């Protein structure tokens, strides 16, 4: 019996394939594994939960305040609403009657082109920097990247004078052009890095099949850049929607966005300051919905290209 067992073991051993030795982890990979273990521990989960609760409390307070009657808002803090629940939707109606409804529509009119225009231009520029060789390409790309460090405030007065001279001051064009110029450096830099991560063999194979730049851009690269486009779109949407400085400087008249209308509500209607809470909640509802709806693409866009292998 023992001999039969030994024979079986020998045959099994002789026919089995030898598995390769496991690859040794690099130092960066070891740190990543250690960080993952620490972040997935029960203590880290409890800390993350506490931070999420603390981060949500101001939003909850803003929402509760927006639903309280004016006398209760002026009498005590929002936490007393749970002991004396008296809520109304009149504050939202009053806030919309002050002109926030029109400004809400204006914000959409401003934000959507201010997101689409820089993405379109940045995609074309990033492709040129990544896959079209031309003289001075590196210098020009470094110059575009360096524009990110230029303070936004130093450009406001020169741009305003230019818009006045051209005759488009106070229109939607001034806000669209301004947000496009301010967002292009980051968009070009981000999309260029993603395009450079695409294997060169993939582009060369498309060229061997007779594909030109237009076909390579739309059929090969563009489907791979969806996470990067979504990540920048979320960044740009949140920035343009919540922007106040550019709106106060360039937008006016019928192009006033929501943030500027809320600031005007606080400055010129001091007797109706209780309407700031519903106005602020109206302003933040859309960015929160956009972020929650696109967070999967947002995270993929931030992490894509961060590791190789």
Summing up helix and strand content along with how strands pair, one would put the structural category as: mainly alpha
Assembly of the depicted chains: single chain
Q: What is the general shape? A: flat
CATH-level-2 architecture of the largest domain: Orthogonal Bundle
Features:
309 residues, mainly alpha, MetI-like fold, 2 domains, 14 helices, flat, disordered N terminus, disordered C terminus
Question: What's the layout of helices and strands?
Answer:
Elements: H1 2-15, H2 27-39, H3 42-67, H4 70-75, H5 90-131, H6 137-146, H7 156-166, H8 172-197, H9 200-208, H10 213-221, H11 226-241, H12 245-250, H13 258-268, H14 276-303
Helix pairs in contact: 3-14, 5-8, 5-11, 5-13, 5-14, 6-8, 8-11, 11-14, 13-14
Task: Give a short synopsis of this structure.
By secondary structure, the chain is mainly α. It has helices spanning 2-15, 27-39, 42-67, 70-75, 90-131, 137-146, 156-166, 172-197, 200-208, 213-221, 226-241, 245-250, 258-268, 276-303.
Report on this structure.
- The relative contact order is 0.11.
- The model is unreliable at 1-14 and 305-309 (pLDDT under 50).
- This protein has helices spanning 2-15, 27-39, 42-67, 70-75, 90-131, 137-146, 156-166, 172-197, 200-208, 213-221, 226-241, 245-250, 258-268, 276-303.
- The chain has 309 residues and is an all-alpha fold.
- It is built from 14 helices and no strands.
- It has two domains: 34-88, no CATH class; 97-303, MetI-like fold.
